[in-house]
Structure formats: structure tokens, C-alpha cells
Amino acid sequence: METYTEVTDVGIEPKEGGLTSAKGFHAGGFHCGFKRKRPDLGWIYSDTPANTAAVYTTNQFQAAPLQVTKESIAQEKRIQGVLINSAVANACTGEQGLQNAYQMRRWFAEKLGIQPHLVAVNSTGVIGEQLPMDTLAAGIEQINLDDTDEKNFERAILTTDTFTKNVCVQVQIGEEQITIGGAAKGSGMIEPNMATMLAFLTTDAAIEQESLDAALKTAVNKTFNCITVDGDTSTNDTVLVMANGKAMNTPITSRDPNQCRVFTEALTYVCRELAKQIARDGEGATKLIEVNVTGAQLQSDARAIGKAIVGSSLVKTAIYGSDPNWGRIICAIGYSGVALDTCNLEVAIGDIKVVENGMPAAFADGVVTEYLRYNEQIVITVNLHSGTQSASAWGCDLSYDYVKINASYRT
After folding, report:
1. For substrate, which residues are the binding ones (predicted)?
2. Residue ranges at the known binding site for substrate
3. What is the pLDDT of residues 371-381, one digit of tens each?
4. How far is the C-alpha of 66 from the C-alpha of 121, rounded, in Å?
5. Which CATH architecture does the domain made up of 13-280 adopt?
6. How does pLDDT run across 315-348, given as a tens digit for each residue?
7. Which of 108, 252, 304, 367 could bridge across to 207 with cysteines, CB 3.0–4.6 Å?
8. What residue segments make up the domains of the chain, in order of their start?
9. Which positions are catalytic?
């Protein structure tokens, strides 16, 4: 897996690790019976209640666990435990599904010996099925907080993913070093604002909840909201961050914009890494596509163009087939909704310029074909030459296997 290697001027240091790298966090997972063999129940626990922020899917059919988690966070803005099951989404399950999500929260709170509002719950999997509550109850009874293994947690939250996703960084905040770790799942039905993806972030930083919330929204807009696999926005998905203050740094507040910037940059790095791993693991994908848009008047314009390109089925299939058909890229830019000076537009595939001043550049098709065929990460660069703003977006190619996987998802 290629990782994002840019380190900003705030001194971000990528590290091996994940959710339990931050002080005071524990996580685990195991097979309890939702699936035939694979791990399917995961949990996160903080030694102390942690300031918490979250963002959720924009799909109007929000699953029952999201409603319960929103209620938990709203009560005190702090969470101490998170419980996640895979295989069953508990979405579109009516009042019974909602009561099951509340029961899921109560059972885990009792296991931890804490109040229910300090627990968040998430589910991922097939829509429209009720949770098998006997299986869930037996699984919660098996949880052992001393049996911490973040790798098992990462496996437990997967559905059609082909690999686990994690990242960890450290950064200096005042006199103290703080750690941010994360894990995610996502492979299909990916088109955030948000989509079929879950991401959990932990940090031992001391940070006020309002600043944590602002940092998460900024990070998500630049990362998770800039990926697409197939254009479908799902019912369950959540990015949740917990900050327990165990690093003992001087608390980060809005009164210190520099410390807020440092923390936000580090959190954005973590989210970007996870977002790119999700894009690379698109169902049936063989290539990660990165689109960098520069020279825009507005960052939102650059982001819209990037997402239009990575979301285009014609672009995705051309890249799968190693076809240097730059016309499909131009087409996506044109329908992005962004006003353009088409005569100044430049496009490059890799380092090969294929469009200059809105017209075909002088290049050899075979060179672009070779680049597309032999690289697992395909970079497309668009320069609008109309401003100073830029943004990136990520997606994947579209292969025959995507159809095979989704044609038999429930069978």
C-alpha cells in the first residue's frame, strides 16, 4: 500500500500503529456469529470519557445506530465506548431496529460499567435486516477489555473490503507530543457526503469539544468528502473522533489558532490516508486514481471538478483498460458545474501533458497507455489557470469484478 508522504510544516510524523497508539485507548474484535467465520464485532474503549465529535451520511434513510449515537454525543459531547457490528446494517428496520440499537447501547454500557449516553454504536452490512439480538448479547458478554488487539478491531468492521485500513501520526502540541490514530472500513457504495464507510479516530490530545468538532469538519471536507468509488451514498456511515486528553498538553482551544491549526493539519493527514486507502480498495479496483486540480478561483470549484473526474464511469473504465482517452476527462470537467475558461485549460496524465490551452497537446498515445498499464496509482492533474485555489480527489478504476461482487452481494 502506497502511503501519503507529504509532511506539512507543522511537523507531522507518521508512525506505525492505529487506534490504540494514543494513550488510554483500547480496541478489539472477534467472531460472534453475524458472519460465518470472519470477525464481526468490534469495540473501542477509553480509560476516561473523551470529548467526541462526529459527522454522518447525508442519506435521508439514516440507520438506527446513527440516531442513537447522535443522541449519545448530544447529551454530554463525550463518549467512552464504541461498539460496532458488521454484516447487518440495522437500516430501514423501523421502530424495532431503533429499539435494538438502544439495547445494543445499553448492553455495552452495562459491560463497561458506564452510563448508556457514554456509548456510541455503529453497524454496517446488509440493509433491511434486523439485528440477531441473541447473537449480539452473547457477543457482548465475550468482550474482554484486557484483550486489546487493534488489528482484530480493524478486521471486525470489514464487509467487502479486501484489506484493513489504519494510520497513526504524532505531532508536537506545546511541550507535549500528541498521537492521533485511526481505522476505517469501506470498499463499495462509496460517495461521501458520506457513504458506506466507517472511520474511527482516537487521540490523546486535550482539546475542547468545539475545536475538535471544527477540526473534524475541516478534515472530512478535504478528505473523506473527496473520494468516490461508485457514486452511491449509503445509510450508515460515520466518522467519529475521540479525544481523551491523556497526553496532558495544555488544552487546545479556539483562543490559540496556531495550536488548532497544528491539530487540524495532523487530523487531516490521518483522514486523508484513510480516505486514500478506502478509494484504493474499491470493489474490484485495480488502480487508485488521484486527481489534483489547481488554478481554481474557489477551493469548492477545484473539489467539484476533482470529484466529477474520479466519479466518471467513463474515466474509470478508460483507466481500467489503459485507454488514453483524455476526452472523457474533459467531458467530466465540463459537466462539473464549474464556470471555466476552456481556452486556458491544461490536463496531464502522470507527467504527460495531454491537453494544452483547451486543445490536444502533442503526445504519443503509447506513452500514456504504458503509464496507465504499469502504475497502480494514476495521477491526473488539471490546471484551470483562473485562480490560486486547489484541491484533490481520489477514486478507483471500474472493473468487471465490481459488477460480479455487487451482483451477488446477498447471495
Report:
1. 159, 185, 196, 283, 406, 411
2. 159, 185, 196, 283, 406, 411
3. 999 999 999 99
4. 7
5. 4-Layer Sandwich (3.60)
6. 999 999 999 999 999 999 999 999 999 999 999 9
7. 252
8. 13-280, 288-407
9. 196
